[in-house]
Amino acid sequence: MRNCIIAQSGGPTAVINASAVGIYEKNLETKYFDKVYFGINGIEGILNKNIIDSDSLNKDNVLNLKQTPSSGLGSCRYKLADYKINSYDYDRVINILDEYKIDTLFYIGGNDSMDTVMKFSQYCKNTTCKIKFIGIPKTIDNDLLGTDNCPGFGSAAKLISTLIMETYLDFSIYKNNGIFIVETMGRDTGWLAASSSLARLNDTPLVDLIYLPEIDFYEDKFIEDVRKIFKEKNKAYIVASEGIRDKYGNFICEQKTSAHDKFGHSQLGGVSNYLKNLIVSSSITTRVKTLELGVIQRCAMHLASDTDLKQAAEVGAYGIELSKKGYTGVMAIINRTCNNPYKYEVSHTDISKIANKTKYFPKEWINEECNYITDEALNYLYPLIQGKPDIKYKNGLPYFSIIY
């Protein structure tokens, strides 16, 4: 008997479940695996034998996960030790997978999840274990190396730019419009904040200033930028990533605590209010509104990109092909082959080229003033937000599935 198990970890996206369903559907078609199991709450759940046989679930309910946002299989942020120092977790997981006759583990996630895939594949190569570990990409941050874009990002970008259009219209109704500041996610990279440049009315950009983690943040320069825009327009719309830093690499809004997650990431929040205080204390205006977009960026199926949804399913389905060909320690990737018309192909690359590495927003796509992005970046972004998924509704609301 040859079985597989699918699990998710890290932060969710609007389309992460489409990757799981992509694997599930491809196996219904190919019947390569005898059974498909779901590992609930990632590798941590597998360690606790929190495993569901997909045959025990309603098939239509599982398929409907494709239009259900967030992590339908649950998630975790479980950091594995170096197996050369402590192999307990590795041994236990392998024993459990053997018990279920698992041939391949498909792990859907971002940077930290790919670290897990790499560690397990390396462990197996140094033992007699024949189980294959294959990474399926997801992250709204779009910061995985080796792939043109990450499933989850296109939908987040579409949501951000749409919300900016709507909030711009709301904040622009008064004669004295003041200043509006939007804070996006993005600890280390500015892809999400940069996507705000897509927001337009009558082909005119709505955002005046964009600040990304890739560029050192200087308070004096920021105040100068805002003062100039406000003097010209009597209003300003600003977007900043939560991860903007000073020249020393310190987050400008890092909480004054020792709080970190299990991967050592600082707990962030409050950039928009920090910038508001700078503006008010500089006597530019006291009329400043802020909006921290928060988790809506990663779970808004009602504004998902159809391109994003399809790609998420495709990289999942491609995982089956990778397993059939005997690959392990690899991640499915998206290669852009043409920008206009937009074309791409799904391929793969070695996990060691991705794990614990970061794809930053290109500095050549940032303007000379370091407060906006270039047309080249727009050409990259536009194809990723196209299309609207045809989702089912029930009682006037999107119809979502829960399987556990």
Describe the protein in words.
The protein is α/β, with parallel strands linked by helices and 404 residues long. The protein folds into two domains: 3-151 and 302-357 and 386-398, 3-Layer(aba) Sandwich (Rossmann fold), CATH 3.40.50.450; 154-301, Rossmann fold, CATH 3.40.50. It has helices spanning 16-30, 42-47, 59-63, 88-99, 111-125, 153-171, 191-194, 219-233, 271-281, 306-324, 375-381, and strands at 3-8, 35-39, 51-53, 102-109, 132-137, 178-184, 200-201, 204-205, 209-211, 235-241, 288-292, 330-339, 342-350, 393-394, 397-398. Strands 3-2-1-4-5-12-13 form a seven-stranded mixed beta sheet, with helices on both faces. Helix 1 (16-30) links the parallel strand 1 and strand 2 (35-39). Helix 1 (16-30) packs across helix 10 (306-324). It is elongated and about 70 Å long.
Briefly, what is this?
This protein is 32% helix and 19% strand. With 404 residues, the protein is α/β, with parallel strands linked by helices.
Mean pLDDT: 95
CATH topology value of the largest domain: Rossmann fold
CA gyration radius, whole angstroms: 22 Å
Low-pLDDT segments, ≥5 res = 255-260
- How far the N terminus sits from the C terminus, by CA atoms, comes to 25 Å
Percent strand: 15-25%
Percent helix range:
25-40%
Level-1 CATH class name of the largest domain:
Alpha Beta
Query: N-to-C SSE series?
Result: EHEHEHHEHEHEHEEEHEHEHEEHEE
Number of helices: 11
Number of extended strands:
15
Task: Give the tally of structural domains.
Answer: 2
Structural class based on helices, strands and sheet pairing? alpha/beta
In CATH, the architecture of the largest domain is 3-Layer(aba) Sandwich
Cofactor: Mg(2+)
Domain Phosphofructokinase: 4-307
Binding site for diphosphate: 11
Organism: Clostridioides difficile (Peptoclostridium difficile)
